[in-house]
């Protein structure tokens, strides 16, 4: 007798092979059998076609699809998993594993809570932590509903050792960071990430990156990078990222690959060719979300000198009339009204900022009779550098070409959210709720890849990149992370105007053999693990 039997579905096994009609039997946390299991019994029998849209039994290609649990290859849920371990925004997309610690920012190790990125630091947590081992203990206490692959961020390491200073690291400082990283890897982290457009990591020399990525490489870990540039110096940044991985002996993951800004859209062929060539003799892959606007904090627009010394020092500069005038001038240089039309205000924190959520900076400036640069400075000051923003400027055609590459996996580039509670009060990018179903619809409706390939890009491909040999495929002996979705109903509903909206069409989600979502509702059971 199985614990769970999924009967009558259309199986997409995660390998990219064509789908087929097959039943799936689960015993404990493991897939025990796949095939024709009509005579088998189970404690729980799921016959998804009985609850799917349409009347009566449907032929296999139209029946609910059964596939491995989706792996979010680029997530930022590190701290939020401790607040909302049910992870609804991810589970309703069929995500069963999140890869966290990206873009150089991880929840551990930290010298103090003040070392957390501003959006994480804005929340209260049940218990404190410092090192990665303590963070792991807090995560296990929270009992997340999803599995977690944890990476360690470069900017997090730098703040521990150097503080918020924007300068190259001395040899002794690099060694201190390397030791912190080694301790984290020994405690269960799986790799090292950089965010080279952010303070303070933007000042890092290549030798520093190689030394740290090398620590991950020696332990079989991955090097993932939000590169120094995704626009004007895109090609140089790709070359640097690959070179760092080679010298460090680490697999390379290029974070949210894009060609940012219309002036750089024409670099798509050269960018893809660089990566294809490197893949001939080195493991290089990338991730991407299916949207043409990115998201980060608005203060990323401030020049590097403004960030020296950390948040309080930056806020002091914003309050200094002479330095504020200099900042306003530098923000305006080379930026046309059209540029500001492409920057939308997201999460805000000060009462006076709330009215501008969802407005472009240009519209907010016109509404107040101000210069756009002045609007940016006012928001940054009022929100204490926590203002979120969406940045347009990506090509839809290039996005589809990137998503179609066989080595590009799918990542939300978002922390988990919830429609209610403490994680419902901000204004996130819709990718937090909609990435997976949006990509599935692109595959089914636009044909950018075949659906079995779309599933592979969210299952066995990231499982291989992040060294998860027992995840990402449906076959006997694999861990039972399984998703059932209705191909007729799956869709994203979150928008830039209304982002806190759950995806639709995911019928059942099983994590480590535990039914976590069924018939579109959370069960309350949580069985995720740190992998």
Task: Summarize the structure in short.
It contains 19 helices and 21 strands. The protein has 531 residues and is of the alpha/beta class.
SSE order and pairing:
Elements (H helix, E strand, L loop, with lengths): L1 E10 L8 E8 L2 E6 L6 E5 L18 E4 L1 E3 L7 H4 L4 H4 L3 E6 L17 H4 L10 H11 L4 E4 L1 E2 H8 L9 H16 L4 E5 L10 H13 L3 E5 L7 H15 L2 E4 L13 H12 L4 E5 L5 E4 L6 H4 L3 H9 L1 H12 L4 H5 L1 E3 L15 H8 L3 H11 L5 E4 L4 H9 L3 E3 L20 H16 L4 H6 L3 H6 L16 E4 L20 E6 L2 E5 L2 E2 L9
Parallel strand pairs: 1-4, 1-5, 6-7, 7-8, 9-10, 10-11, 11-12, 12-13, 13-17
Antiparallel strand pairs: 1-2, 2-3, 5-18, 14-16, 15-16, 18-19, 19-20, 20-21
Helix pairs in contact: 5-6, 6-7, 7-8, 8-9, 12-15, 14-15
């Amino acid at each position: 007798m199985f614990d769970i039997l999924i009967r009558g579905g259309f199986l997409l096994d995660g390998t990219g092979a064509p789908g087929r009609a097959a039943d799936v039997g689960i015993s404990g946390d493991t897939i025990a059998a796949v095939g024709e299991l009509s005579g088998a019994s189970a404690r729980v029998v799921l016959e998804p076609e009985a609850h799917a849209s349409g009347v009566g039994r449907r032929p296999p290609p139209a029946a609910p699809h059964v596939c491995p649990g989706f792996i979010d290859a680029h997530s930022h849920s590190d701290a939020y998993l401790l607040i909302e371990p049910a992870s609804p925004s991810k589970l309703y997309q069929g995500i069963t594993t999140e890869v966290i610690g990206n873009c150089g920012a991880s929840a551990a190790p930290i010298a103090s809570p003040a070392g957390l990125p501003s959006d994480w630091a804005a929340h209260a947590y049940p218990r404190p932590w410092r090192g990665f081992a303590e963070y792991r203990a807090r995560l296990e206490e929270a009992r997340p509903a999803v599995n977690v692959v944890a990476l360690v961020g470069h900017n997090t390491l730098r703040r521990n050792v150097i503080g918020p200073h924007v300068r190259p690291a001395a040899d002794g400082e690099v060694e201190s960071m390397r030791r912190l990283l080694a301790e984290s890897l020994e405690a269960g982290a799986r790799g090292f990430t950089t965010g080279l457009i952010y303070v303070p990591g933007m000042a890092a020399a290549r030798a520093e990156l190689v030394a740290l990525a090398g620590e991950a490489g020696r332990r079989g870990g991955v090097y993932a990078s939000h590169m120094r540039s995704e626009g004007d110096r895109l090609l140089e940044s790709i070359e640097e990222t690959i070179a760092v991985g080679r010298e460090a002996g680490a697999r390379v993951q290029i974070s949210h690959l894009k060609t940012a800004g219309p002036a750089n859209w024409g670099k798509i062929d050269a960018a893809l060719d660089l990566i294809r060539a490197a893949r001939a003799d080195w493991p290089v892959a990338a991730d991407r979300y299916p949207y043409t606007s990115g998201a980060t904090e608005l203060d990323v627009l401030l020049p590097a000198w403004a960030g020296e010394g950390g948040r309080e020092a930056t806020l002091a500069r914003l309050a200094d009339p002479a330095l504020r005038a200099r900042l306003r001038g530098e923000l305006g240089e080379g930026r046309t009204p059209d540029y500001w039309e492409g920057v939308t205000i997201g999460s805000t924190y000060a009462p006076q900022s709330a009215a501008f959520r969802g407005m472009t900076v240009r519209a907010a400036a016109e509404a107040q009779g101000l210069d756009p640069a002045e609007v940016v400075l006012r928001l940054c000051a009022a929100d204490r550098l926590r203002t979120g923003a969406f940045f347009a400027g990506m090509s839809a055609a290039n996005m589809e070409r990137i998503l179609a590459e066989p080595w590009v996996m799918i990542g939300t580039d978002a922390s988990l959210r919830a429609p209610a509670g403490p994680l419902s009060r901000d204004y996130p990018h819709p990718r937090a709720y909609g990435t997976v179903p949006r990509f599935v619809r692109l595959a089914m409706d636009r044909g950018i890849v075949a659906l079995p390939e779309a599933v592979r890009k969210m299952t066995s491909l990231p499982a291989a990149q992040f060294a998860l040999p027992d995840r990402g495929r449906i076959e006997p002996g694999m861990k039972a992370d399984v998703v059932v979705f209705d191909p007729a109903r799956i869709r994203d509903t979150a928008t830039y105007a209304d982002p806190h909206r759950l995806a639709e069409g995911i019928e059942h989600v099983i994590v480590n053999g535990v039914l976590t979502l069924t018939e579109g509702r959370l069960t309350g059971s949580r069985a995720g693990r740190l992998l």
